[in-house]
Amino acid sequence: MAQQDGPTSSRNHGDPFDHRTTTVEKGPFCTAQCSCGWRGPARRARSLARTDAEGHLGG
After folding, report:
1. Where is region (Disordered) located (predicted)?
2. CA 22 to CA 31: how far, in whole Å?
3. Residue 7 above 80 pLDDT?
4. Among 14, 34, 36, 53, which residue's CB has the most CB atoms within a 10 Å radius?
């Protein structure tokens, strides 16, 4: 079963989407996902998935 961390960040700059990112764990991998549909690559380290999410948000 996949586990989800809470939202890691959000932004709203007048976009049609309020970008809310989360990390989802599936087996030994963690993936960053956004409410806009974006998904980062599968990572073994949560910290790298969080970094992917921050990069998606422009942070």
Report:
1. 1-24
2. 8
3. no
4. 53
